[in-house]
Design brief:
The chain is mainly alpha-helical. 75% of the residues lie in helices and 3% in strands. It has a two-stranded antiparallel sheet with strand order 1-2. Helix 5 packs across helix 7 and helix 7 crosses helix 10.
Length: 306
């Protein structure tokens, strides 16, 4: 059992809010985020996540640090699937690149809040009903198999129930109006298409959190580690999008790899009472799956592009 004092929770939240403020200030003006800038920010977020893992190692030991890193890698890898969907949403609405960071910033802010709620609820359920871990495991195996079978399918925002409901109940004006979410027309406020994009981004992240959070509970049951591994992985989602969005077509086997990751952590959860798979081994398996699928994807598409 990991004992985490309240000041440690407060310190982590303070660091997260500080980094969000720095990111917001750095991107206070609407501009196109280039690959070089995205690479720098990706390095910053990854370094921050790794540094926090080192702090966990120093404060609570290697086993808990391993659990944190396993959760971080799982969440980071599953976040790539978000990038696929974000690219489709931005393309469908023809969102100018200079406004995309603004949407993703508030999307990440909302994601942190929703995931904190999900993690708290999951922790309470696991503490009250230990058998629910088997339900999580079965769900992850099912989701992984389904993802593998339907990996070629693409998302069509026009068929989204959320988008249809939004258009039905919220008046929407034309144009992005300088990147604002709401504008005043006459005596009433109306939404710009950017607000519809933000709503879809938030809903998308909630849907993906249903997979990723149970997956992290497979490697650690400590709420502090589940939240921090989620938070530090999600903080880098914006930079990851701008770094990878134009390369998505090359990761042809990545969804299959993510599906295998979900199946692996689901099986690990189902075997809890029979055999406890070491954290380091789980981390090595996840890293191996992702490495093989990424390298194979890049080699395959390189051959095709010649």
């Amino acid at each position: 059992m990991l004992y985490v004092p309240l000041w440690a929770w407060a310190a982590v939240l303070g660091v997260i809010l500080l980094m969000l403020a720095v990111d917001l200030y750095a991107h206070r003006g609407a501009h196109v985020v280039g690959v070089r800038e995205a690479a720098v920010w990706s390095g910053v977020w990854v370094a921050l996540g790794l540094a926090f893992g080192a702090v966990v190692w120093w404060a609570w030991g290697g086993e808990f640090a391993g659990q944190y890193f396993a959760g971080y890698v799982i969440e980071k890898s599953l976040a790539v699937d978000n990038v696929f969907v974000f690219a489709i949403i931005f393309s469908y609405f023809a969102v100018p690149r200079e406004h995309q960071h603004r949407v993703l910033f508030y999307g990440v802010l909302g994601a942190l809040v929703f995931r904190a709620v999900f993690i708290a609820a999951g922790s309470v359920l696991i503490a009250s009903f230990a058998w629910i871990l088997y339900l999580f495991g079965a769900f992850l195996v099912f989701t992984g198999i389904r993802m593998a079978r339907h990996r070629e399918e693409t998302i069509d925002p026009e068929r989204s129930v959320v988008l249809r409901l939004f258009r039905r109940f919220v008046p929407v004006t034309d144009g992005f109006r300088g990147g604002r979410f709401l504008v005043r027309e006459g005596s009433r406020w109306v939404a710009t298409p950017l607000l519809a994009v933000l709503v879809l981004v938030e809903v998308t992240d909630v849907v993906f959190a249903v997979d990723s959070i149970p997956a992290i509970f497979a490697v650690t049951r400590e709420p502090f580690l589940v939240f921090t591994s989620n938070a530090f992985a999600v903080l880098g989602l914006r930079a990851m999008y701008f770094l990878l969005a134009d390369l998505m077509h090359r990761f042809v086997y990545l969804k299959l790899g993510l599906a295998l990751v979900l199946v692996w952590v689901g099986v690990k959860m189902l075997l809890l009472d029979l055999y406890k798979i070491p954290t380091w081994f789980s981390l090595a398996v996840v890293a191996a799956i992702l490495t093989v699928t990424v390298v194979t994807s890049l080699r395959t598409t390189r051959t095709t592009m010649r």
